[in-house]
Amino acid sequence: MSKKAAKILLVGNPNVGKSVIFNRLTGSDAVVSNYPGTTVDYTEGTFISGKQEYTVIDVPGAYSLEARDKAEEVAVRMLHEHRDATVVVVLDATRIERGLYIALETIEMGRSVLIALNMIDMAHDRKISVDDRKLQKLLGVPVVPLTAITGEGIMQLSDMIRKAQASDVKDILARAEGRASEPAQASGCAGC
Amino acid sequence: MLNSVTQVLNLKMKLSEMEFGAEGVITEINTEKQKINAMGIRVGKKLKMITKQPIKGPVVSTCGELEVAMGVDLASQVVVDVD
Amino acid sequence: MQKEEHPNRHKRQVVQGADMVLNEDQRWSLVDLLAKQTISAGTYKQTVWDVIGELTVKPLTGIPVAFAVLYAFWSVFGSFAGALCTDGFFVKFFDNHFLPWMQAIWPDPNSILYFLFVGDPLADNCFEAFGVLTSGLFIAIGVVLPAVLIFYLMMAILEDSGYLPRLAVLVDTLLHKMGLHGYAIVPTILGLGCNVPAITATRILETKKQRFIMMTLLAIFVPCGAQLGIMLEVIPESVGYVMLFLLIGYVVFGYLLSKIVPGTNPEILIDVPPYHMPQRANITKKLWMRTSGFIINAVPFVLLGVLFINLLYIGGVIQWLSDVFAPVFVHWFGVPKETAGPLIAAFLRKDLAVAQLSNIEMTQYQMISAVVLISIYFPCVATFVVMLKEGWKELLAAVGVLFAVAFIYGGIIHAIGILLGVA
Q: Cα B49 vs. chain centroid, distance in angstroms?
């Protein structure tokens, strides 16, 4: 219940709906379009969830943390400048692999992470199903499915932000390879 | 006879030289691997060539749910085992 | 330069607190493992959108569609802004009611205040009067506002549908020869609305070289929505020629810049997102934000611009500049020396400058040359400021290029006129 606003960074591939989530959370008017690279600079907004005030920073999309263009450089710079911020990695449920790459990079940085699995409706239309519980267990960080464009799942996302946590890529690798049969109960993700 | 032989033997081909609509599995990415990988185009993935623009224009292909356009020089560095 | 292209390639930072960092291949194989255990895909039937998606990116069908889209864009723009709103309503309202009313109620037609705010007491239309409250309001509200409104509406639909990346693929061949790649169409189209967001959007291009070329071309050859709107009203029969000259300049000077500017020009490598039905709520929101931005930021600028220009006329500054630059204007560019006034206005607002040109007596070809000159000679002050934000060195270099291009191209257009026997 700290009075100080906690910081959140919205990170992910271009055109996965970060700005839509940002607008939904904060009630802001960030420009949203259907082409990669709509957001080329960061935008800040705030919202309150469970008595905690959050400052959300909408970051330009990046395919990886090895910046390719100037907009991606802004994204990488924001991650380095806000070391105490919780990172919400936004994935497009229809193109999840590419998003997982930058999610792993973020986890490897030792950041406190939460995965927002966006565009569930599109995935449904395209007959793609994502086992979000399983993904959560494998990654050891909370995964929230949502459809930002309709607002579905946004409430859950804002409730879950405080449960964001760091994970260890060594453990993720072990679980993914089936070497550690049970998920990291000890790390506290059983409750999420 | 000949037909059945070509059906068994897969053909390695540059993405830039594939026929419209041809499909195959990516076997090599020779330059800018990191950049191309980051877009989701990777060795071992199934790829379908959609179209290419005239006069050395970019090549458009789909890879699963992804649709990516890349310049013809980049596409000539992506080798595909065509079905 | 080299460093700028690949900032992190050789010095990947290992952040404290991380226990283990994977290399690229290891990370991708972990991604595969995770994906295999969590994603299952059923058989997906192509929708009509997917089919349209393919048709609009294949050259045989895509190129005609691109022309059709751009033509539709232009004709809706012209008929809504020009014919329906401005000619159909605002011209009648301002010329027949508002102007006579202002001329009647404002005291003392010989006073300085009358000249500043109402303008010419004998004027019978709002282009000639040139007072802050007559021409200023007419240009801002009557001509430019409907133009930017309809332009932003269509641009929002283009942006939200997912068409822009496909257009980028189709124009890549041409743009790659200009030191850019196809995705430069995004800042270009944004620039046709307003150059300010377009300059910021150049960040989607990878190298300094590409960004510099794009920024310079935007500042010189891409007219903004406000300017398009006023051109449609003032010189409807010549807009096509102006646009042709600007397009030729965009391509030719882009090509020359790509040869001169050092640096690399990587090929296009972009995502082509699936089409979406544009959502009405998002379109309305964007339209409202951009239009209200125009009303808040641009309208006062137009009014202040008229005031400023009128003050310069009273002070004799414009007459003086006209005389000083007369040889250049008359002999090199082939336009009347009075064009000096609009060129000063162009720094504040391009729309204002074009409106002012309509009051100068000249031939159609001179008018075309003058409008092209106004477009290319200098960016408006708002564009100038955002360019400064992207880097002062680039700005200085861009301004250098800009003066050279304006001088050379202005001369060439004059020469073409002489050859065609119309100048």
A: 6
Measure the CA–CA gap between C398 and C400, rounded to whole angstroms.
5
Smallest Cα distance from A123 to chain B, Å: 10
The answer to whether the CB atoms of C43 and A127 lie below 8 A apart is yes
**Is C237 buried (19+), middle (13-18) or exposed (0-12) by CB count in 10 A?**
exposed
**How many structural domains does chain B have?**
1
The CATH class that applies to domain A6-191 reads: alpha beta
Is C214 in contact with C202 (CB distance < 8 Å)? yes
- The residue with tokens 């690279």 is A37
**Domain coverage including residue C296:** 59-269+286-420
Residues in A touching C282 (Cβ below 8 Å): 32
Distance from CA of B71 to the nearest CA of C (A): 5
* C143-155 pLDDT per residue, tens: 888 888 888 899 9
Let me know if residue C4 belongs to a domain: no
Contact B50 C59 (CB under 8 A): no
Q: Is B30 within a domain? A: yes
- Chain C residue with minimum CA distance to A70: C203
Rounded CA separation C421/C226 (Å): 31
Q: Into how many domains does chain C fold? A: 1
Do residues C247 and C380 lie in contact, with contact meaning Cβ atoms separated by under 8 Å? no
Task: Tell me which residue range forms the domain holding B54.
Answer: 10-82
Q: Kindly list the partner chains of chain C, i.e. chains with 3 or more CB atom pairs below 8 Å.
A: A, B
Distance from CA of B34 to the nearest CA of A (A): 9
Predicted local confidence at residue C216, as pLDDT: 93
DSSP state of B71: -
Domain residue extents for chain A: 6-191
Indicate whether B70 belongs to any domain: yes
C239 to chain A nearest CA, in Å? 30
Beta bridge partners of A143: A115
pLDDT digits (tens, 9 = 90+) for C269-299: 999 998 988 888 889 988 998 888 888 888 8
Q: Does C60 touch chain A (CB under 8 A)?
A: no
Residue B69 lies in a domain: yes
Q: Strands B59-63, B46-52: parallel, antiparallel or unpaired by DSSP?
A: antiparallel
| C269-271 and B66-70 beta bridge pairing | antiparallel
pLDDT given at position C10: 41
Of B38, B64, B65, the CB nearest to A63: B38
